[in-house]
Amino acid sequence: QVQLVESGGGLVQAGGSLSLSCAASRSIFSINIMGWYRQAPGKQRELVATISSGGKINYADSVKGRFTISRDKAKNTVTLQMNSLKPEDTAVYFCKIVLSISQDYWGQGTQVTVSS
């Protein structure tokens, strides 16, 4: 079993920045994809950004140019730098790692609130 520990959420004013980090509880030989998803109240969980083991990055259109995802393979961590935050970015942000097509893990989520 793998636990993901997220940190960095909080309250920020519109236009501000936050950085989210996610670390795996133990060393993992091979993580295929690491990423961030979010879920706003009353809405479905949606992809924010993912990064593959080969460095391929995918962003949701709504965050392109504002958010940056990065990973540290040696430390099994993934970071989401969020700039120019908007009130519509308010959500619970979840970290996810994919080890294989049938094995993935989610973090418990961290709240991000952007005030207008």
Walk me through what this model shows.
This protein is mainly beta and 116 residues long. It has no helices and 11 strands. It has strands at residues 4-7, 10-13, 18-24, 33-39, 46-52, 57-59, 67-72, 77-82, 91-100, 103-106, 110-115. The strands form 2 sheets. Strands 2, 4, 5, 6, 9, 10 and 11 form a 7-stranded mixed sheet that branches. Strands 1-3-8-7 form a 4-stranded antiparallel sheet, with no helix packed on it. A hairpin with a 6-residue loop joins strand 4 (33-39) and strand 5 (46-52). The chain is globular, with a radius of gyration of 13 Å.
Short description:
With 116 residues, the protein is mostly beta strands.
List the helices and strands in order.
EEEEEEEEEEE
Instruction: Indicate the low-confidence ranges by residue numbers.
Output: none
Roughly how many Å apart are the termini? 40 Å
Indicate the overall shape.
globular
Fraction of helical residues? under 10%
- Strand-pairing-aware structural class: mainly beta
